[in-house]
Amino acid sequence: DAGITQSPRYKITETGRQVTLMCHQTWSHSYMFWYRQDLGHGLRLIYYSAAADITDKGEVPDGYVVSRSKTENFPLTLESATRSQTSVYFCATGGWGEQYFGPGTRLTVT
Amino acid sequence: GQNIDQPTEMTATEGAIVQINCTYQTSGFNGLFWYQQHAGEAPTFLSYNVLDGLEEKGRFSSFLSRSKGYSYLLLKELQMKDSASYLCAVREDSGGYNKLIFGAGTRLAVHP
């Protein structure tokens, strides 16, 4: 039982490219979340989803797009990557409190 | 708005006790959470406080004072594996919508 997985684990892309980060959970939790983690900022919420086809913005949504056609998947797309989007991205499930995080994707935009 | 403050770094000795403080300013407070994050890994849930007082879970305890906007995480009998970052997170109820706001984390180094 993998729980929550993310792919890829590491990604290097160029400025202006589109890149999609994948998140998959096996628990059938309703809520899913995307965070980015940068030194000095802690975890910041990008987008979240309360259920399939229901998504909403978090604290730092600009430059990102999400979708949730199936309960178990919650992909995050950077439409045109910028250097400021270099970060570690974590997907999580659970609720507004106790959350279960995926292993993270380390994204570098050159 | 929300503001969560934690010390950036702390050091402690194996076998000792360490207290990591967290202060917060928020409207609609609805719970405080502590997470542990080892370097290069995902955060993992440690504890939850919504009422004032101390919650004990093995070697870890968490305290909350809502009137003071203050919490601490107490780690006893420190082990080398406790070297990690500890994240304080506050759940805020803003007009029927929940938010979970994370502090920047406290990096704890345990040395022999």
User: What portion of residues of chain A belong to β-strands?
Assistant: over 45%
Q: What is the N-to-C order of secondary-structure elements of chain A (H for helix, E for strand)? A: EEEEEEEEEEE
Amino- and carboxy-terminal Cα gap of chain A: 35 Å
Poorly predicted parts of chain A: none
Count of DSSP strands of chain B:
11
Number of helices of chain B: 0
Cα gyration radius of chain A (Å)? 13 Å
What is the general shape of chain B? Answer: globular
Largest sheet of chain B: 6 strands, mixed
Broad shape of chain A: globular
Helix-strand sequence of chain B: EEEEEEEEEEE
Low-confidence segments of chain B: none
Question: Helical amount among residues of chain A, as a percent range?
Answer: under 10%
Mean pLDDT of chain A: 95
* Beta-strand percent range of chain B: over 45%
Largest sheet of chain A: 7 strands, mixed
Structure annotation, total helices of chain A: 0
Describe the structure.
The complex is a heterodimer of chains A (110) and B (112). With 110 residues, chain A is mainly beta. Chain A has strands spanning 4-7, 10-13, 19-25, 31-38, 42-51, 54-57, 64-66, 76-78, 87-94, 99-101, 105-109. Helices cover 0% and strands 54% of the residues of chain A. In chain A, strands 2, 4, 5, 6, 9, 10 and 11 form a seven-stranded mixed sheet that branches. Chain A has a four-stranded antiparallel sheet with strand order 1-3-8-7, with no helix packed on it. The mean pLDDT of chain A is 95. Chain B has strands at 3-5, 9-13, 18-25, 29-37, 44-49, 53-57, 60-65, 70-75, 84-94, 97-102, 106-111. Chain B has 112 residues and is mostly beta strands. The mean pLDDT of chain B is 94. In chain B, strands 2, 4, 5, 9, 10 and 11 form a six-stranded mixed sheet that branches. Chain B is globular, with a radius of gyration of 14 Å. At the A-B interface, strand 5 and strand 10 of A face strand 5, strand 9 and strand 10 of B.
What is this entry, summarized?
The complex is a heterodimer of chains A (110) and B (112). Chain A has 110 residues and is mainly beta. Chain A is built from no helices and 11 strands.
